[in-house]
Protein: Bifunctional protein FolD
Amino acid sequence: MTAKIIDGKKIAEEIRQEAKLEVAELVKQGIQPCLVVILVGENPASKAYVGSKVRACQETGIKSLKIEMASNASEAELMDEIDRLNADDTVHGILVQLPLPHHMDEERVTERISPAKDVDGFHPENVGKLSIGIDCLTPCTPSGIPELITRSGISMSGKHAVVIGRSNIVGKPMMNILVQKGAKANCTVTCCHSGTDHLANYTRQADILIAAIGVPEFVTSEMVKEGATVIDVGINRVEDPAHSRGYRLVGDVDFDDVKDTAGAITPVPGGVGPMTVAMLMKNTAKAARLIHNH
Structure:
């Protein structure tokens, strides 16, 4: 039996429409949600990501501002820009596009953003609140995964979720989201990583398997329990001379191998990817609501 394909594009569009309604309601109350994205340097991938975020803001009714800084700008200059935005009451979300140039400390920069405007959900204060179950701004990619699962008609409560990967961007916040009480979580959670011995022994127990390791097509059918929900967070370029671009995009899951074992699976592209920007729109609306006590 071939797995149900979880349509990330469709679900992301639903969420963006919900965010659009939230924004329209805030605008009626005299609050114009505003997201500022800071781009340092000329990284082509970063420029593309920023462009997609700006377009999403336009479609959602969020005011967006893009601040571009030269790659040789100092860390102090970036900090000054963040301080200015923190103090600006008309700005509700601040996002510094990563990666930063090597001479800048990403951790220090992240900590400089006001937690109330940290729409990436990376500030230590928000990380701490998430871990103990206090409502806060949470990282966009892992926040979108329970939406993908539950909006596809799959129950999460009581399920065993196995996360492969322990990054601060996906793996760790994913664990903290899944373990909380609530219909879109309430899982028993296992985290596996590069130090895990006999990895497949754990992954084969998963009702929900989330792969976020950045290794192309790492997860095979031998690692997946029959009927499991498989969420592929990875996006990797693999050389392919037969492709017009000379490469193709694949996830951390060997999709063709796993799709006949899994009960449901996300494709790459078109699975988790579209959710990240959709959840950013939701976070920006939420930040505006919280800042103005609505």
User: Anything to note?
Assistant: The first strand starts at residue 4 and ends at 5. The chain has ten helices and eleven strands. The domain at 30-114 is CATH 3.40.50.10860 (Rossmann fold). The chain has two domains: 30-114, 138-273.
